[in-house]
Amino acid sequence: MLRVFANKNLLPYWQSIQRVQSEGIFGYEALIRGPKASPLHRADKLFGAAMAQGQQFEMEKLALNTHLATHARHCEHQGAQRLTVNLSPGLLFDNEVSETLQHYPYAHLLCIELTEHLPVDDWASVKAKMAELRQLGYTFWLDDVGCGFFELTLINTVKPDVVKLCITIISRLDYGAEIIDEIRQVVDTVHLYGGKVLAEGIETPQQLDIAKQLGVDYAQGYLFDKPKEAGL
Fold this sequence. Notes:
Blueprint lengths: L1 H6 L3 E9 L5 E9 L9 H10 L3 H23 L4 E5 L7 H8 L7 E5 L8 H12 L4 E7 L9 H4 L3 E4 L1 H5 L5 H16 L3 E5 L4 H9 L4 E3 L7 E2 L3
Parallel strand pairs: 2-3, 3-4, 4-5, 5-6, 6-7, 7-8
Antiparallel strand pairs: 1-2, 1-8, 1-9
């Protein structure tokens, strides 16, 4: 873990985000891995070890800086590309993160995906910070809605630009009408205020067909591709 921090030895991976209602790729989600051939290569092992040592937020910041550097190089050398990056809501108030985001030149192409590690007690201050960053061009996504701390009732409170339906929900698409009705309700709610919905973990053509019928806007999953190393 000390070597990872000292050498900034993280590997950025990208996975495509596909348009559901039309053809083509919307952009990519940025994922992070530890050093190859090490016990920390997998993201769950990497962040699990960081959390055990009280370094979770430092690891998140290192991952963010890694992703921004990779994204900036891509935009400079290969053209504009939309990218989503994961961030805990509390880190929006970190001075180092704030400074980095304030000066990032490709803010209009970056989607900040708020992730759940701890419950958020004060969404009012988070929304105020989101409003500030939106002025710079950032958009905000809410990750894993329907699982854990990010419940469906938060949608109308936070009004994210994109709601990502938890992979557990998508895995149940083939099992009956109840889950389909729940997803339809989410899609209708999000579309009502102008947001969009992403289905994460699409693995079969049948799941994709159901998502399309429900009006889901974007999708990710092994049906399309697996995360690939994004080194340029």
